[in-house]
Design brief:
The complex is a heterodimer of chains A (about 110) and B (about 110). Chain A contains no helices and twelve strands. Chain A has strands at about 5, 10-15, 20, 25, 30-40, 45-50, 55-60, 60-65, 75, 85-95, 100, 105-110. Chain B is mainly beta and about 110 residues long. Helix content of chain B is about 0%, strand content about 50%. In chain B, strand 9 (about 85-95) and strand 10 form a beta hairpin. Classes of the chains: A mainly beta (about 110), B mainly beta (about 110). The interface of A and B includes residues 98, 102 and 103 of A.
């Protein structure tokens, strides 16, 4: 079936550190890939997306590249801030489907 | 601000009761999806409505039901509440015609005691 696997958290970093959150997906069909962020007490917000192989999604300093050969869509940021502390969800959506499948989420905690 | 509003934000119900959760969108998106997010987990798809008809359902029992109205607002109804139904319920709207991404509300935190 369609699934998404994320690295377990929490990920704890100091401010200005480099961030990587790993995400792999099942390769069924030609999925679009997404990263959502959930701040405490809020719903999910779309952070970035990529719709085909080798596409790079980027927003607010975050980046992720659609890697078909490794079925991965790892989230990266060069220098995290305390305000980036949140839960990050990787998601896939098959072509022709309007329903994304989410990973379990990875909590990021950034200390000053 | 996503323009998606859910109500109520929190509520507490007793096991066996029924609950109705509501969702509305300012943008007139024609597709609404409901998700259940248990603590520490990712959102699990419950069902989706497109132009007032159910159009996809996840692995949830029939006591989870929904409606979409002509103005595209939506309700999620849960009958015979169980303790395990305690979760954050998220509504997401999108426009299938325009193939937009999903915009989420802030969720309703349901606690069943």
């Amino acid at each position: 079936g369609n699934s998404v696997t994320q690295m377990e958290g929490p990920v704890t970093l100091s401010e200005e550190a480099f961030l990587t959150i790993n995400c792999t997906y099942t390769a069924t069909g030609y999925p679009s890939l997404f990263w959502y962020v959930q701040y405490p007490g809020e719903g999910l917000q779309l952070l970035l997306k990529a719709t085909k192989a080798d596409d790079k999604g980027s927003n607010k300093g975050f980046e992720a590249t659609y890697r078909k050969e490794t079925t991965s869509f790892h989230l990266e940021k060069g220098s995290v801030q305390v305000s980036d502390s949140a839960v990050y969800f990787c998601a896939r959506r098959s072509g022709g489907s309007y329903i994304p499948t989410f990973g379990r989420g990875t909590s990021l905690i950034v200390h000053p | 601000e996503t323009g998606v509003t859910q109500s109520p934000t929190h509520l507490i119900k007793t096991r066996g009761q029924q609950v109705t959760l509501r969702c509305s969108s300012q943008s007139g998106h024609n597709t609404v999806s409901w998700y259940q997010q248990a603590l520490g987990q990712g959102p699990q798809f419950i069902f989706q409505y497109y132009r007032e008809e159910e159009n996809g359902r996840g692995n949830f029992p029939p006591r989870f039901s929904g409606l979409q109205f002509p103005n595209y607002s939506s309700e999620l109804n849960v009958n015979a509440l169980e303790l395990d139904d305690s979760a954050l319920y998220l509504c997401a709207t999108s426009d299938r015609t325009m193939n937009t991404e999903a915009f989420f509300g802030q969720g309703t935190r349901l606690t069943v005691v």
